[in-house]
Every structure is written in structure tokens, then in C-alpha cells.
């Protein structure tokens, strides 16, 4: 059992709180995520104090003080180290594209909504927030292991989606904007949502088949995760 806060392994695990060290692995800090990782064969290591919570080969027993240090939280009895997912380009029928979102919490909540409303794929532009950030993982409800997730150039991705028969809708405000309720449901639909401050970029918006907005009263803007949920609910599979 490791009891020293100065242990080399403890220091290496603690570094996983920083994006630059998450090249191959990342921390899993709640039970739901750990069990999802185990089910998906993506659990690299189990770190625990006290009684081992379940049977697993690659384990590390530590003191409560050491576990609190690694997790940067108090009172947990076990945490995990996850393996990075293999990115997939299997679009399915319903796709969400994210254009330079910077808040990992929003990406995590969008993953959760994808699960809730039956969306298949999440395509994230390069330069967006890290999907292995703890806030994203905690709010994804295991979506990172259930969705087809990939990173790429959204201009290229939209071209590919159109070749596959998708109608692509970007959220925003322009002269030709349609309200969400005016759209007809089609077999293959993809929605682009933009940066928390600047929205969908002009270049990406110009590639979409339609620009859409959500009809609202009293306020003129929505959090991007909330907007994504409304679009997904309206056009769930």
C-alpha cells in the first residue's frame, strides 16, 4: 500500500489533472464512469483505499490521504485511470457538430443529451475543449464510451456528411434563418452548434444547408448545451 504523497507513481497520476499529460490516459473520478470504462474494456487501472470495490487485475492500493491527493477530492474510496477512446467516423443517422466550444462542461452536457435523445455521433472541431477534462467526463454520463466521437475540420466533415445524404443545419441568425419548428424531419440530420461567445463561424455556417434558430420569448440567447438539447429533442430519432 502506498502511503507517501511523494511517491513517484502518485505524482505521475496527479499530473493527469493537466491536459498536456493526458496523452494516453486520464482520471475517472466517479463510480458511474469507472463502471462504464470497465464495461467498455477501457479501464487501465483501479486505485482504491480500504476494501477493493470489485475484481480487477491492475490495481493500486493507497491510503485515504494519497487517494484524496490524486483525486483532488476528499472522501472517495476508489478512482480509476481510463484509456483514451478510439475515435470513430461511423455517422449513424443523427449527428452533432461542435464548432470551437471552450467549456468542457458544455461538451459533457451535450454528450449526455446525445445519449438521452438517441444521437449517434459527435464531431468536435480541433481547438475545442478537452473531452478528457474532469468536468466533461463527469457530465457526459458515460457518453464518451457510447457515442461515435471524433475530432476534425468541420468544413471537411460537412462535405462528407452531405455526400452521405445528411441535411446539415447550423444554429445562428442570418437573413435566411428558419425557426426550428419550420424544419421537416429527415432520415439523416446533422446540427452544428458554435462557440459560447461567437457562435458558429461564418465559414462553417456558409457550408450548412440551412441556418436555424430556436423561437424564444423574453431572452435572446441560450447556453449552447441547452440549445443543443432542444434541437436534439425536436429531431430525436
Give a brief description.
This protein has 9 helices and 11 strands. It is α/β, with parallel strands linked by helices.
Note the main attributes of this structure.
9 helices, single chain, seven-stranded parallel β-sheet, four-stranded mixed β-sheet, 31% helix, 237 residues, 22% strand, alpha/beta
Please write out the topology.
Elements: H1 8-14, E1 25-28, H2 31-39, E2 43-48, E3 59-61, H3 64-71, E4 78-83, E5 94-99, H4 104-116, E6 121-125, H5 134-140, H6 143-146, E7 148-152, H7 154-163, E8 167-171, E9 178-179, E10 189-194, H8 202-205, E11 210-213, H9 224-234
Parallel strand pairs: 2-3, 5-6, 5-10, 6-7, 8-10, 8-11, 9-11
Antiparallel strand pairs: 1-4, 2-4
Helix pairs in contact: 1-3, 4-5, 4-9
Describe the structure in your own words.
- The protein is of the alpha/beta class and 237 residues long.
- Helices cover 31% and strands 22% of the residues.
- The chain has 9 helices and 11 strands.
- A 7-stranded parallel sheet has the order 7-6-5-10-8-11-9, with helices on both faces. Strands 1-4-2-3 form a 4-stranded mixed sheet.
- Helix 4 packs parallel to helix 5.
- The longest helix has 13 residues, at 104-116.
- The termini are far apart.
Amino acid at each position: 500500500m502506498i502511503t507517501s504523497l511523494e511517491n513517484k507513481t502518485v505524482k505521475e497520476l496527479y499530473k493527469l489533472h493537466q491536459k498536456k499529460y493526458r496523452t494516453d490516459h486520464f482520471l475517472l473520478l466517479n463510480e458511474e464512469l469507472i463502471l462504464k470504462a470497465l464495461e467498455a474494456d477501457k479501464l487501465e487501472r483501479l486505485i482504491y483505499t480500504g476494501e477493493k470495490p470489485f475484481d480487477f487485475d491492475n490495481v493500486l492500493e493507497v491510503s485515504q490521504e494519497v487517494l484524496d491527493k490524486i483525486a483532488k477530492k476528499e472522501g472517495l474510496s476508489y478512482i480509476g485511470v481510463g484509456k483514451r477512446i478510439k475515435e470513430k467516423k461511423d455517422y449513424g443517422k443523427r449527428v452533432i457538430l461542435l464548432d470551437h466550444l471552450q467549456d468542457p462542461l458544455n461538451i459533457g452536457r451535450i454528450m449526455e443529451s446525445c445519449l438521452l435523445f438517441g444521437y449517434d455521433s459527435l464531431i468536435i472541431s480541433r481547438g475545442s475543449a478537452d473531452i478528457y477534462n474532469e468536468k466533461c467526463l463527469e457530465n457526459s454520463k458515460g457518453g464518451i464510451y457510447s457515442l461515435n466521437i471524433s475530432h476534425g475540420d468541420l468544413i471537411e466533415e460537412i462535405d462528407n456528411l452531405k455526400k452521405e445524404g445528411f441535411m446539415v443545419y447550423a444554429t445562428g441568425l442570418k437573413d435566411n434563418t428558419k425557426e426550428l419548428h419550420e424544419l421537416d424531419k429527415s432520415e439523416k440530420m446533422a446540427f452544428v452548434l458554435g462557440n459560447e461567445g461567437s457562435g458558429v463561424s461564418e465559414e462553417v455556417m456558409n457550408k450548412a444547408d440551412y441556418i436555424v434558430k430556436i423561437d424564444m420569448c423574453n431572452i435572446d440567447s441560450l447556453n449552447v448545451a441547452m440549445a443543443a438539447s432542444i434541437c436534439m429533442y425536436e429531431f430525436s430519432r
